[in-house]
Specification:
7 strands, 67% helix, transmembrane helix, protein histidine kinase activity, two-stranded antiparallel ribbon, alpha+beta, kinase
Length: 367
């Protein structure tokens, strides 16, 4: 029996139910479409599964209303019951899902809280932007000051280089003039030596050689890029060769040299060259009195820790403790002692198969 018979087929009641159920079903079928369109537009939507269940629930409800219209004229109550049963299942699932999601939904910030957080975030962004602008301004100011300071330093360095160049030229000129004056003094003494008596001539010759040795230092410094220190090896080698040319004209004495590069300050160079002059002269003058010949060895090197070691060794007669020294030799020994103390050097004399003088000092600890 169709459901319309319950209304006795009264048109007003029949069509009231039919139209109401039909319009409700149409609306219920349209709601899921709206939900699907909304969910597709919002990819960041929370609880997306609730929208799916709600859409199914509303769709099922719409189906029950359409079945209500159908059974007014067609008594398919079994089909209507199945539709209602499906609607019940979907409704219970939707209810369970909503209860499960409710604590999480309640924990979500409200629109007011979101607005407050957004306002605070905008304020923080503004503060950070201001800080970045201030930092950029500081960086620009720092770069400007660095550029100014760099320019000042560059100008100061240029001025310093010019001043150093002027001072270097002045010092080189001083060395040149000192060398010339010493050579003039040496020449004068040489002339005096030629005219002096036999007792005075050796003393003048000794003084002349000492002055010539000092002039060699200033000669090297005049042409050197470093006007405050010198490779003393070249000067000592020149001094030794000059002394040999004076005292060994017949070539009976063989002189060997092992002179390594050794750069020291001028305050040490002058005393060391004078020590070398005295020691080498003494070797040529006193080591071979019988003129039988022999050998002299001159060594100069600098150790890894900076200690300078200079030595002069000969194969001559050595030192006779019973024979009194000549006055000139005593003066030379006294000069070596004084010059060694001046540069803080230790020196020792050994006489075994000849004589050996060794001088050691550290330029870094020179008084």
């Amino acid at each position: 029996m169709p459901h319309g018979m319950c209304f006795l087929w009264e048109p007003e009641i029949l069509w009231l139910h039919a139209v109401s159920d039909a319009l409700t079903g149409i609306a219920y079928y349209g709601i899921p479409v709206v939900l699907v369109v909304f969910a597709s537009k919002r990819r960041d939507l929370a609880f997306r599964y609730l929208f799916i269940l709600t859409g199914l629930f509303v769709l099922a409800c719409g189906s029950t209303h359409f079945m209500g219209v159908w059974v007014l004229w067609n008594p398919d109550y079994a089909v209507e019951g199945l539709v209602k049963a499906g609607t019940a299942v979907v409704s219970l699932l939707s209810l369970a899902a909503m209860w499960q999601a409710m604590p999480h939904a309640l924990a979500m910030p409200s629109p007011a809280e979101l607005r407050a957080a957004n306002t605070e975030l905008e304020a923080e962004v503004t503060r950070r932007r201001q800080a970045e602008e201030e930092l950029a301004a500081l960086n620009r100011n720092l770069e400007m000051r660095v550029d100014e300071r760099t320019t000042e330093l560059r100008k100061a360095n240029d001025q310093l280089r010019q001043q150093v160049a002027r001072e270097k030229l002045l010092v080189q000129e001083i060395h040149h003039r000192v060398k010339n004056n010493l050579q003039i003094m040496s020449s004068i003494l040489r002339l005096q030596e030629d005219q002096a008596d036999a007792d005075l001539a050796p003393h003048l010759a000794t003084a002349q050689r000492r002055i010539l040795a000092m002039s060699k230092i200033h000669e090297h410094l005049h042409v050197s890029d470093d006007t405050y220190s010198i490779d003393i090896g070249d000067t000592i080698k020149d001094t030794a060769e000059n002394i040999q040319s004076i005292y060994d004209e017949d070539g009976k004495i063989d002189m060997e040299t092992d002179i390594q590069p050794c750069t020291i300050g001028l305050d040490c160079a002058n005393p060391l060259v004078l020590i070398a002059n005295e020691a080498i002269t003494n070797a040529f003058v006193h080591a071979f009195p019988d003129e039988t010949g022999g050998s002299i060895r001159v060594d100069l090197h600098q150790t890894a820790d900076g200690v300078v070691e200079f030595s002069v060794a000969d194969t001559g007669v050595g030192i006779d403790p019973d024979r009194p020294r000549r006055k000139t030799a005593s003066i030379g020994s006294m000069m070596i002692d004084a010059l060694a103390r001046q540069i803080g050097a230790s020196h020792e004399v050994a006489s075994d198969h000849g004589t050996r003088l060794t001088v050691r000092f550290s330029p870094e600890t020179t008084p």
